[in-house]
Amino acid sequence: MQLDSNQWNLVYNVFSFGLVSMLACTIYTLVSQQRVLAKYRNALVMSSMVTFIAGYHYLRIFDSFKHASEGGKVLLDGSQNSFNEAYRYVDWLLTVPLLLVEVIAVLALAKEVSRSLITRLVPASAAMIALGYPGEISSDQNTQVMYGVLSTLPFIYILYVLFVELGKSLERQPAGVAETVGRLRLLLIATWGVYPIAYIFNIVGDASSSSFVTVQVGYTIADVLAKCVFGLTILKIARMKSMAEGMKDDH
Amino acid sequence: MQLDSNQWNLVYNVFSFGLVSMLACTIYTLVSQQRVLAKYRNALVMSSMVTFIAGYHYLRIFDSFKHASEGGKVLLDGSQNSFNEAYRYVDWLLTVPLLLVEVIAVLALAKEVSRSLITRLVPASAAMIALGYPGEISSDQNTQVMYGVLSTLPFIYILYVLFVELGKSLERQPAGVAETVGRLRLLLIATWGVYPIAYIFNIVGDASSSSFVTVQVGYTIADVLAKCVFGLTILKIARMKSMAEGMKDDH
């Protein structure tokens, strides 16, 4: 894939932006733990782990892109020295279930409710990612469509659990929390929407350099929203709940 | 060993997955110490050390695999530039005894019981690993079988100590702890079972690329289960015990 120098530099710098955003967010959520009550700290730690894992993968993606390129030409043939897109799947396999657990953890629901939500969301989200991968690496259009459809089924189930099941628990949350969780849920759906769009783009789109650039920039912005902005929203919810439960607003 | 590009990429990405899982788990157990009573924190620190040591070795294994490969051909002849499988043995020599000490530490048994279990489990587990190594590097089938059998003897002794001796101590644990320790012990046996299977696979199996891929992927998944999932289970047990001893469930 031959990129012109503007395209190549855009992708390179967007990867670097993704990397440093994840690292900064990791440290921020780690050192902010004292600002929330003890019961909400685990949600913050999980957010740190999500951005830590994503930071690791952006470091690898950044290096892989650099080493797979020569004069703006990026090697994409799956050979040893080509750009390794699979880092994204390994990342999602770990971070997507963690993001869902993070939402449940910050709500501090009753133990049996938490457990029931987690035991349904975690396998569903892992299945969603794992089923997407064979389609991503295949070059056969029917296989791509089949795994695209298969991967959509757990995605719809996750939407059902988040909007219908989780919705019931939001009524008992302090003022403002339900609205923020609602926004968090929309953020999650909006950013996760980027991934199937990019997937369809790969199937029907032309193999042009501008498609490649659009997909890489789109993935990176979606990752920063779905992990960093998401984590900062989790911190905000944890602080709202901590204050509703009597923590002094001087932290 | 010539791998096709899917095989090479699978092994490469599985190593990267192992590496980042170990690192994330190390940080998670380190920062979660305040969530358990002080007497259980050493078990968590040991779990961090196990995943830290394993993370180091996965970094080395990942780099070694990359540098020993050229166009999907992996050098395995034991020369200076070949893939260094011995990192796994160094890793196990350190982490396997630590994992066993971790189990004993989280149970907080009477001092003399702990000491007696540790002085038997640590030498047995070190002997198990050390006796496997000469068989692993040998290319003579009789030598391989001999060291395989020798290494199995301490393994059986460890099973005896864990199931019979440790079993007696579990009766005095708080509700739920005995079941979780039981599951932990099964996790340990199930994942440790992968190593002798891979060892036998090396002796009787063909030297095909798919055997190589199966063994590497199998080892990595077993390591993630035996170290990360194991460590998170140790954290769960430590929390159950902390709460049974009066720690407030708000952490």
UniProtKB/TrEMBL annotation, chains A, B:
The answer to keyword Electron transport applying to this record is: no
The entry's cellular-component GO terms read: membrane
Give a GO molecular function annotation for the protein: photoreceptor activity
Q: What stretches pass through the bilayer?
A: 12-31, 43-59, 92-110, 117-133, 145-163, 184-205, 217-238
Keyword Cell membrane found: no
Entry's localization field: Membrane
Q: Which GO terms describe its biological process?
A: phototransduction
Tell me what topology the record assigns in the membrane: Multi-pass membrane protein
Give the matching Pfam families. Answer: Bac_rhodopsin
Q: Which UniProt keywords apply?
A: Chromophore, Membrane, Photoreceptor protein, Receptor, Retinal protein, Sensory transduction, Transmembrane, Transmembrane helix
The UniProt family comment states:
Belongs to the archaeal/bacterial/fungal opsin family.
Protein's name according to its UniProt entry: Actinorhodopsin
Which organism does this record belong to? Candidatus Planktophila vernalis
Q: What is the lineage of its organism?
A: Bacteria, Bacillati, Actinomycetota, Actinomycetes, Candidatus Nanopelagicales
